[in-house]
Structure formats: C-alpha cells, structure tokens
Please model this.
Amino acid sequence: MATENPKKSMLYTRTGDKGESSLYNGERRLKTDRIFEALGAVDELNSSIGIAHHYCKKSANGLDEQLIEIQCNLQDIGSNIATPRNDSSETQIRNTAFDEGHIDKLESWIDHLDSQLPPLRNFILPSGGESSIFLHQSRSICRRAERTTIPVVEANDADETVLKYLNRLSDYLFAAARFAAKHDGLEENVYKKAKSGREASIQTRAL
Model:
C-alpha cells in the first residue's frame, strides 16, 4: 500500500536546476563545461555497452564478463574526469587515479580476439547480428567519448591514462564486434562503393 506522504527521494536534489553541477572536489561548474561533456559521453558509452552485454550474454559468446569489467572501468574513468587534477586534494587525486594496467589488459584481450579472426581485407559495415551491431555502436560512441576527453586531459583535468584507455577501447570493441559475428555464424557486410544514379542508368542501358 502506497504511503500518503512518502519521504523525499534522494534521486533529486534540485541543486542543478540552474544548469550547474558539482565535481568530486566540490567545485561547481556549468553543465556545458568540457568536463560534463566528457562525463556525459562516457556515461552514454557505458549504457551502450550495457546493451551489447545483454546480447553477448544471450548468445554466450564469452564476451560478457569482459564487458562488465569495462563498464566498471568506465565508472572509474568518470571519477577521474570528475576530479580536476589541478584543483583537487592529493587524497582525491590518489583515490581516483586510473591505472595503466587496465590498458595492458585491453591489449591482451584484443590480441586474443584478433588471433581468432580472418584477416581484414575490406572495410566492413556495422553488421553481423545483434551482439556485433551493438558492439559497433559502442565503438562509435567510444570514439566520441575519446574526442570529448582530449580537451579535459590537455587542460590537466584528467589523467592521460584515461585517454589512452578510451583509444584502446574502441579497438577492442571493433575486434569484439567481429568476434561476435564470427561466433554467431553471421556474415559481416562489406563496404562497396555505391554507383551513382547516372552510372546505374548507363549500366542498365548497356544491358
């Protein structure tokens, strides 16, 4: 039975109603600030990988545990980005440091996946089934997250390891997408330059 006067939810604070929000160090900035742009892109990436995880687990392709670990790392990346290195305490910086070992692990995963794939001789289109398509979508979002993080790192508001991880993650997601398609026995669509209407008309007349 619903309570007539429920306690106020902690989900909303009203403190951001004027377009500002707080960083981990307590600093208030506009939500249009470069830090929140990067945080939003990383958050969107995490959500997209969540969808990919659902389909990877459903197809039992073995990528689901890796994707969960990546999602956790993205949460840590968000903490790093939300803690400007120039304006935070040593404790805050230490607590939100992002270890380079995560990049090494990604590279080992890429090597393992790529070793099981046929050589890439053509540009491929996002395709190959649900798992593959959502991994490709995550790769595209990852590239945007990387681009929005560059000015944050350049301003020394986040660690360079965060940028390296996002760069490597897009490579991982590409390899994972191809692996998922191969596992599911589904074809990857290959890019072919489309003929213009004029070219198609000329070819038709020639036939």
